[in-house]
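User:
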Amino acid sequence: MITSEDAIRLSKNLDASPLEYLTFYEGKVEKSGYYPLVIINGYESVLGIKYSEELTEQNKWPCHFFDMKTGLCQVHKFKPMVCATYPFSMDGEGNLGHLEKILCPEKWEAQKKDSVRSVIRKSWQEVGKYKEKAKIWNDKYKDNGFDEFLRFMGLHNI
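Assistant: Predicted structure:
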């Protein structure tokens, strides 16, 4: 799942229509309550990035932006906040916790911890902006479709 700010950042940096890489998933997949539910054509949904059409060797569907040949993210410089903060979470006091015990080392230097905290705080701000936009959408436009939602969020190259 991503925020409207993530979608705008991707749109500004990619030479492709957001319809090629963005989608909505059923609202029930958002179990944490972190991302807002957006009502599209009367159904609760969450904004996300499409999965690749190609399976990995582990029979998993990777992110649309995962390059299977190089094993690298194609949008690393402007990736969504969920990717930038993975696999960490942070409580209100600034304590970091692992969401998963994979990909990242257990021990972090102080400088890296401060960097992760900064990115997480920025992600909180972006989620806050998205929640405000989603509330306006849900109150006024919930019977409209995906294309209209993307335009409402500020994505014009659809």
